[in-house]
Each structure stands twice: as structure tokens, then as C-alpha cells.
Amino acid sequence: MPLVSMRQLLDEAAKGGYGVGAFNVNNMEQIQAIMEAARETKSPVIIQASRGARSYSQDKFLYHLMLAAAELYPEIPLVMHLDHGNSVETCKSAIDLGFTSVMMDGSLMPDGKTPSSFEYNVDATRQVVEMAHAKGVTVEGEIGVLGGIEDGHGAGGTGLEHVTDPDQAAEFVEKTGVDALAIAIGTSHGAYKFSRKPDGAVLKMDRLIEIHKKIPHVHLVMHGSSSVPKDLQDIINQYGGSLKPTWGVPVEEIQLGIRNGVRKINVDTDNRLAITGAIRKVFTETPEKFDPRDYLKPAREAMKKVVAERMKQFGQAGHAGDYSPISISEMAKKYSAQGVGVR
Ligand code: G3H
Ligand code: 13P
Ligand code: ZN
């Protein structure tokens, strides 16, 4: 099966009332872990690469690994998505390479740190929508600003400084024609999201529900959605790591989001924790080993376990065979028939 459009996956998820995990990758083992989890659970899936991942991997390597995944797992609808594109040019380079979906994160200026104006965000995102839809590529935009900093990307802070305003969200969708909308509700990237189990004071699920009521047909995206499970933290610390106590987004809150319009859930940190814990365990228990396969295999297996669990929790499990994927060129025709940028 060729790489497919994210818009179709999310439309199908909305029909079925489930969410689809979007998992970040940088290398072959992470892609293999996700594809094995997708096969085991029969899940459609979104694989995403950040700017940092593209530069780490030389993105052509990553692209060809994704083509291999599509060839080796033909039963799995598979999207290749750009995570947090910082500019129109970055999105263009991803589309030119063959990504089937891009995120234009115009909530920040191209430096990836400074919160932008609403007007800048609308203008940059609209440009990406016109360029992408002409090729059948899906666009995710972001309104409101997440907290935290990952690999130099992010505004910092707790995530509560720029929570999404429902009226602005509606105006943004209307003016840009995005296919999916990332919103800020108090989450942040990375392991240190909350200093205690989050409640409504720090994780604004009520705001998410308000936004969904205002724009019920828009596919909402939750970033910073790792749950940072205690058992994964413990494995790292047991084998010589030093993570401070921390809390992520409880899965039941994500499931509440899914019942209220969330269709794409971004997860990276949980997989990073699983990989690191597995590698630390091998290094500590068998320090005589030096074949990378001895620690990359358990690392891949640990990530597969987390991804498969999330696929079941988000509800995408069992849905891989529900529909015939629409090619990007067919999607381009659909967008053009509707008028480019129309949702
Ligand atoms: O947006 C955050 C993702 O976890 C990607 O992180 O920029 O370090 O690759 P990264
Ligand atoms: P986490 O750091 O919570 O995994 O979030 C990942 C993310 O939002 C990628 O865009
Ligand atoms: Zn994100």
C-alpha cells in the first residue's frame, strides 16, 4: 500500500469514534517497532518526523525506510507526517520529499521559540494549505502555544500561558482551511509535564470540550500526550538513570478527549523512555556485551509494547482494514473539486 493521506485516516477515525496515535521516529528500529505494533493490533497509523529527526537521519534515509514499511506491511494504512514544521519552506521541503501530511506550526515564529501573532499564523498556515492541498497532502495547524522545549523547539513555560481560545480556533479554521487542528490545553513536550497527577487546574479538558462544541467537525490534535508511566521511569532509574518524579497525561484523559473530537494523539516521550530503559537494563546486567543488536532488539521490543498498548487504548486497533486508502493524487482531485483550502 502506498503512503496515504492523513485526512482520510482522521475522517475514518471520526466516523468510527476513535483516535489515531502519531508516533515520532528517528531511525529504522523505531519504524519497525511501530509497524510491528500496527500489524499485531491491526491499526492504521501515523508516523511522524520532526525537523530534528529529519536532520539527525538525513531525511531521505527516513523517507526510504517509510517506503519499505509501506511495502512490507501492505495491510496497514500508513501516513508520513512532518511534526512541527516551523516555516512554509520547511513544509515545502517535506512535501517535495514525499511526506503525505505536514504540520505548519505557526503558533511560533520560524525560530521555533517565539509565540507569533494570530495574523502571522493564519497567513503562513494558509500558504501551506494552498500548496499542500494542490498535491493532496494533509495540513495540521496549531492555535495556542504548548509548553516545554524539545531539541530547542518550543516556547518553554508550563503550557498554561497560551491556552487555545475557542473563538480564535473557529476563526483560524475558517481562514486557513486546515484539515486538523492542534490545540493548547496545558500539555507540554517532554517528560516533565506535571509535578503531580494532573487535575482540571493544570490540564484543561473543559477547554477542549468547549472547542469541540464550537467546531464539532474539526479533527482535534493533542500534542504532548505521553503518559510518562511510572513503571518506565522506574526501569530507567533502577538501571542507573536519574529521572526526577514526574507525571504525564493520563490515558483516561486522552480517552475523554477522543470522545470529544480528538483524532490524532502525539506520543514521543513514552517511547524514548521505553527504549532508554531497555538499553540501560542490558548495559547494567550484561556489561560484557558490545553487539548493538543485543540492546537494540530489546529496545525495539519495549517500544513496540508501548505503541501496541496505546493503539488499543486510543481505539484505532482493529480498524486497519475498514477502508481502501485514497492515493494522494486522488486527494488532490478531491480538494480541487471542493476548492483548495476548503475543509
Ligand atoms: O515535538 C516534539 C517531539 O517529541 C519531537 O522531538 O524535536 O526532539 O525530535 P524532537
Ligand atoms: P510527548 O513529548 O508528550 O511525547 O509529545 C510528543 C509530541 O507532541 C510531538 O509533537
Ligand atoms: Zn508536538
Q: Could you characterize what this model shows?
A:
By secondary structure, the chain is of the alpha/beta class. It is 47% helix and 12% strand. It has 13 helices and 8 strands. Strands 1-2-3-4-5-6-7-8 form an 8-stranded parallel β-barrel, surrounded by 10 helices. Helix 5 packs parallel to helix 6. The longest helix is centred in the C-terminal third of the chain and has 23 residues. The protein is globular, with a radius of gyration of 19 Å. It starts with 5 loop residues before the first helix and ends in a 5-residue tail after the last helix. The mean pLDDT is 95. 1,3-dihydroxyacetonephosphate binds next to strand 3 and strand 8.
